[in-house]
Amino acid sequence: MFSALGGVRRRTAETDPSEHRKWVEVFKACDEDNKGYLSREDFKVAVVMLFGYKPSKIEADSVMSSINEHTSGVSLGDFLNVVRRKKETQLYWSEIRHVFTAFDRHYRGYLTLEDFKKAFKQVAPKLSERIVLEVFR
Question: How many CB atoms lie within 10 A of CB 69?
Fold first, then answer.
């Protein structure tokens, strides 16, 4: 999970076939007129169905501007790519939150040097204190 440089590396998850089918079903459900693409509003509804929140205007604009400008909306392939990236990002931040919570023993919302040292003693007892200090900074 931690790279040699002390950062967290991003994992790319393989899409579960049942999850992929769900994404396709949501696309089809939101493409009410069977146009073969999702309009901006259709896309917003699909995000609500999959992620539980309405995307901001900025997020919708970003997706709409990143797709082929010769189409009227988000194709199934583009939609699947967008959803896959969102899911990977969601998993990445969830993993970071999980690691942070494990280090934050007193549930303060921040890490002290002592918290950090104790955590590293458990997961990497042979790591020198100098390296732990460098990573903390």
Answer: 7
